[in-house]
Amino acid sequence: MNSESILPEDDAAVLLGRLWDPARRGPCVVAVDRRGVHALSAETGTVSELLERDDRVEVVRRAVAGTPSWRTAEVVAASLARDRSRPHFLAPVDLQVIKACGVTFVDSMIERVIEERVGGDPARAAETRGRITEAIGGSLADVRPGSEAAMRVKGVLREQGLWSPYLEVGIGPDPEVFTKAPVLSSVGLGAEIGVPRASSWNNPEPELVLVVTSRGEAVGATLGNDVNLRDIEGRSALLLGKAKDNNASSAIGPFIRLFDGAFTLDTVREEEITLQVSGPEGYELEGRNSLARISRGFEELIGATYGDHHQYPDGFALYTGTLFAPTADRDEPGQGFTHKPGDVVRISSARLGTLVNTVGVAEELPRWEFGIAQLIRHLSVRSGA
Asked: For 367, what's the count of Cα atoms within 13 Å in the CB-facing half-sphere?
């Protein structure tokens, strides 16, 4: 991987990111293009602050027209090598709350039902998957959540003993919204992502992540990996926090592509997000998340997250769910897919670039130590306050 394969395919992309600057011992908001990485320290201290400005696109475009602070290729190389002694990219969000919507695709919804039915046991998943598919007959594909047709399907599934909380949020009136990770805990390009030792059935979840302001306006998009522990969540839906929020379990990046005249929320409705997992033993897995098949619109997901019922003064980043749920066996027949330490996960799309991470053991990864208090101290020192 190099900078050419990390960045979006078109040069017109307005890209905003964050970089760790060893010289200043802290993060720096940056504008990025193929030629260079441009510090925005004179304009803003945080990504959140810049995104609240109406001139955010112009700020980035002015920056990339000037002399870069670092070469893009060198920062990408340091990021992929996890060389903390050199400038490297971080997750491109900072003070935003990391929220997520789950079960936004019918296919994913079925997999959540399977997890629940088998109690997190992958050996029983194939049999249960077949029974559920036969019971619904594929009829859920065109059902709009919350509609009268959805309520009729809900009744049929209840009669067959197949109802679950996942089907409720999949076809019911209210989407699932949860907090994926604490502020500043997400990792970026090249970083290791964490799977706890206790999990023996887990998978990546390649997703579109919308970046939303304090006013509830989506102003950009990026890629995300909502690392998921299927065995933990499968034991009980009430273990969602334990399954979703662990050390380095939220990967976001490589950059935020800001919405402008050519790239809009409508543009990403048809985006194809691809996944590739390369195992240390030569194993290869490919998957696809086709956003055109999402069962709830982006506006509905944002509205369920933000409104009179809940505000986010620093904005939020919103994972929008995934169509992808791996079912192919990796090792033993009937055991399905699960991660191994050393797996390289690549999540890509033509307009958003490529997010690359390597799977590690959560308990063995670098501790998360740079939090909100340390960011405030860093910004105070940098401004001379």
From this structure: 1
Q: Point out the residues of the chain with pLDDT beneath 70.
A: 107-108, 133, 135-142, 160, 384-385
Rounded Cα–Cα distance for residues 50 and 44 (Å): 6
What are 88-126's pLDDT values in tens digits? 999 999 999 999 999 898 766 777 777 777 887 888 888
C-alpha–C-alpha distance, residues 165 and 177, integer Å = 13
Q: What pLDDT, on a 0 to 100 scale, did the predictor assign at position 383? A: 74
- At what angle are helices 148-159 and 125-136 packed, to 10 degrees? 130
pTM of the complete model: 0.92
What pLDDT was estimated at residue 139? 62
Give me 70's structure tokens. Answer: 């670092």
Q: Are strands 344-349 and 250-258 parallel, antiparallel or unpaired?
A: unpaired
Q: Do 317 and 96 contact (CB within 8 A), yes or no?
A: yes
End-to-end CA separation in angstroms for the chain: 41
In whole angstroms, what is the distance from residue 208 CA to residue 186 CA?
15
The closest of 18, 20, 27, 29 to 84, measured between CA atoms, is 20
User: Whole-angstrom Cα distance, residue 201 to residue 278?
Assistant: 17
Residue 219's pLDDT is what? 98
Structure tokens at 221: 């998009």
CA angle at 344 for the pair 8 and 128, rounded to the nearest 5°:
105
Instruction: Report the distance separating Cα 281 and Cα 324, nearest Å.
Output: 23
